[in-house]
């Protein structure tokens, strides 16, 4: 395995293997969402759910992934008529796999406590600065940024591989459509929950 495989598994692995991994990722994200009271309200957006039920978490997660798949497939067909649905499905599902870690982070009590301690210190600075709590917060921020960049890289590389886009105009269109669809999906799904 090399760097290219890590950042673009879509060129290395068979689409059926990627699809199976993606389906397992969806199942895992729903199960973890039920455990953590969170759900995907769009790709790249995980929200807390009040009074969660397994049904609501499953529906919102599936709808957010489905919306991204449909929109990317339409865009892919516009840019390249040979774009296959399985490649778009794999792109969306595999890119969201690493974000399941974000769902789990909220359940780690010392990370939540560290954030509260730093916020409390900022609002009323008394006593020694909570350096370890601050270090935990900075480490988690750094980890979150790296994870998010990796997921976006997978998302872009998967779409690029699926559609064979090369022109900068197509890449810019992909970025704009992805951003707008993510925001619209969040608004719509937030009304459901």
Automatic annotation (TrEMBL):
Topology of this chain in the membrane: Multi-pass membrane protein
Cell compartment(s), UniProt: Membrane
Signal peptide: none
Keyword flag Membrane: yes
Domain Yip1: 4-187
Coiled-coil segments: none
Keyword Ion transport: no
Keywords: Membrane, Transmembrane, Transmembrane helix
A cellular component annotation (GO) from this entry: membrane
Pfam families linked to this entry: Yip1 (PF04893)
Protein name: Yip1 domain
Organism encoding this protein: Chryseobacterium jejuense
